[in-house]
Write a structure and sequence with these properties.
Blueprint: E1 10-13, E2 18-20, E3 24-28, H1 35-49, H2 58-79, E4 84-88, H3 91-100, H4 102-106, E5 111-115, H5 123-135, E6 155-159, H6 163-176, E7 182-185, H7 189-195, H8 205-209, E8 214-228, E9 235-245, E10 250-255, E11 261-267, H9 273-284, H10 293-299, H11 306-309
Parallel strand pairs: 2-7, 4-5, 4-6, 6-7
Antiparallel strand pairs: 1-2, 1-8, 3-8, 8-9, 9-10, 10-11
Protein name: DUF1995 domain-containing protein
Organism: Vanilla planifolia (Vanilla)
InterPro entries: DUF1995, LPA3
Length: about 325
């Protein structure tokens, strides 16, 4: 089986009916029942359609995400006729996307556009919104009424959002998507989680009550390692990936000489990054003796991130399933 490096990901969350696409998480499901069929179709789309994105400029990355999102929406609509609302971080991003991708949007049915600015905010945030609109010349466009519908969508898709936007997405869901599936598209959730709890960012509780609900449906995260050994060649470089395609199990993949990936371990629950590395070392015959000082010196005191360790604080284990 082959896996290509991807920086796209979808995740679906069952209780809150949310999905997301980002580096690592490619597809995830948190809602069972009818959404399982949608998730299965989406995971196949992810495997077939998500190409590798380069680490180019921010605008190139944003535009590529939008193109991928439109491709996913188009293919999903071919399988299951659903109406989708694409939600952008703010009004300027929404306006920019509607201008750049106007032709594509005009050729698609059942699609509407929104932004996180639609969420009612307090006086301080409202002042900043007004100031930003003035500085960004965010005046109403002639086509402001385009891609709107009086009927509620069947799916909300959030795109190009940051760590600070996650708490606003939660409020948006409470306001507009209480019973509607939501897709977080290519938000690099593992990267966003690492910012939680830092000064100026939402606290870690956001993961425990919100992000933990995400059930990955399509996930690819590549890793590269090196290990010193006492004999020639003295330094061994190896790489692999943590992979999951719903409804299949989580898999640890070893990158081979020809560039393909081979499954070396699988489990119904998510491997931590530390466990992924241990599986790679074991199959390569490079793992130290269990409980030895060499093993402790290599692994260190911490072998997992805070969100992988603190199970008792999570309101849901969906993101590990």
């Amino acid at each position: 089986m082959g896996c290509k490096k991807a920086i796209t990901a979808l995740s679906y969350i069952t209780n809150s009916r949310v999905a997301s696409v980002a580096r690592g998480d490619i597809l995830g499901l948190s809602r069972v029942g009818a959404l399982k069929d949608v998730a299965t179709h989406a995971s196949r789309i992810g495997k077939a359609s998500f190409s590798t994105l380069g680490e180019g400029s921010s605008d190139e990355f944003i535009d590529a995400n939008i193109q991928l999102a439109l491709a996913v929406i188009r293919k999903l609509r071919e399988i299951v006729e659903i109406d989708t609302c694409i939600v952008f971080p703010d009004q300027p991003e929404k306006r920019r996307a509607s201008q750049l991708f106007r032709t594509a949007l005009d050729t698609m049915n059942g699609i509407t556009l929104g932004s996180l600015d639609d969420v009612p905010s307090g006086p301080v945030r409202s002042v900043f919104k007004s100031l930003r609109r003035v500085l960004d010349f965010d005046f109403s466009a002639d086509d402001e009424g385009n891609w709107r519908s009086n009927e509620p969508p069947s799916l909300f898709l959030f795109i190009n959002c940051s760590t600070q936007d996650l708490s606003v997405i939660e409020k948006y869901m409470e306001q507009y998507a209480a019973s509607i599936p939501v897709l977080l598209f290519n938000l690099e959730l593992d990267t966003l989680r690492s910012d939680l709890g830092l000064w100026g960012f939402p606290n870690k509780d956001l993961h425990y009550r919100f992000l933990s609900q995400f059930l990955p449906v399509f996930y690819v995260r590549t890793r590269e390692y090196s290990k010193t050994i006492p004999v020639a060649p003295f330094l061994v470089n190896y790489s692999g990936a943590l992979f999951r395609q719903y409804p299949g199990p989580w898999q640890v993949m070893l990158k081979q000489v020809d560039g393909s990936y081979a499954c070396i371990a699988e489990c119904a629950t998510r491997f931590t990054l530390g466990e992924t590395k241990e599986e790679l070392l074991t199959v390569l015959g490079l793992k130290e003796e269990e409980g030895s000082s060499l093993e402790f010196l290599r692994r260190g005191y911490k072998n997992a991130t805070w969100w992988e360790e603190e199970l008792e604080l999570e309101q849901s284990s969906n993101w590990r399933s």
